[in-house]
Amino acid sequence: MRVHSWKTTAVLAVAASLALVVGVASSQAATSTGGTRVDVGPGGSDLAKLPLTDRDLTDREKVNLAVVLRAYRVAEGNSLDVPAYVEGFTKDGVFNDMVAGRTYRGKAVGDVLTTMAGIYPDVHRDLRKITVDGDVVAVELSIQGTFTGTLPTPAGDLKGNGAKIDVPTADFWYLRNGKIEKFDCFVGFTAMYSQIGVTIDWEAAVGGR
């Protein structure tokens, strides 16, 4: 199946227009997922706007997709809602920054959003390809934004220089009963640092042996 590239704005528009709102009762058809009421959707017309590898989704898969899309929407710099993001996880849910080797649990999963927004206040995610397989949602995307904030480093804070980033990323969401149980995120940090003017000093590294 041919997969097209889509603009972030189109994807987020679908997410914003979904009738899927976790924990909020709706007049539309809904399914119960472990005590949390989640509306079934998105519908066929909504699915057509998404970069899905397969649009023939079960109701359960549509619910999982909507939960993930909502997480992306509330993580955007222009619509940042950390409590809503945290609420989308199970009580024992975890966020794994696979490249940096860091794990966040509970309310700390929201720290990732505030840190990223502190570095790139206009941060947004351009979702390129979405695959839904049962309780797993895999997303190929690019993290984009402008470096106008402050990046904490072991050598001190690095002030923003207005550089634009477009960083290849892969996200894997694992859901249980309409909530995010685990989120594994693979960010191309090497590309990100290069784009903001930070280079690895191999000569100093070799010389320091």
UniProtKB/TrEMBL annotation:
Listed SUPFAM superfamilies: NTF2-like (SSF54427)
Signal peptide region: 1-29
Keywords carried by this UniProt record: Signal
Domain SnoaL-like: 78-181
Protein name: SnoaL-like protein
